Known about the structure:
The chain is mostly helical. It is about 60% helix and about 0% strand.
Amino acid sequence: MSQEYTLHLSKDKKIKKLIEHHGAFTLTKRKNVCIYLCASIMSQQLSTRVADVIYQRFLNLYGGKEPKPEQIIDTAPETLRAIGLSNAKTGYVQNVARFALEQGMDQRKLGKMDDEEVITYLSQIKGVGRWTVEMLLMFALGRENVFALDDLGIQNAMIALYKLDRTDKKQFREDMLHVANKWSPYRTYACMYLWRWKDNPPPLKNR
């Protein structure tokens, strides 16, 4: 598979150079989608180092293991705030756990949906936006053709590499999509190379 996507993406000379420098990437599926989403919310607007500390404190509340949704719901909000979560993030994490318990978000259920259906489904949760679900699609569900249009790292890399201009926001988005369409059906991998271009991968890639 790696050879297949690298051959396709190498048609783009800019991506080809990144492939030659960084080698091939692999995508993995995570069994516990709920915890990935909780961790993603915890990490928002924080450095990777701080996010890692808070996530470890979170696990320590449950004996160092990934908790079940029921355990998260049963945890007192002040206990979650005490590990460094804001009031808003505390509510969002418990929203995710409640949704997982009541509606379901396991690999089997989400595996029957296409990317846009997963985004629509999980964006119902207060505190979960499109970008967060796109990261989940890539790094928890292993989807190969996701393009994170609103990711600042991707935008900055494409401005630099493809000489795009963000003055006109609508035109900028169209220009990004025009370039990215050539990477299909492997746009996730292209995003991974663009993040590596400035060594700026999104958080949670190893969780």
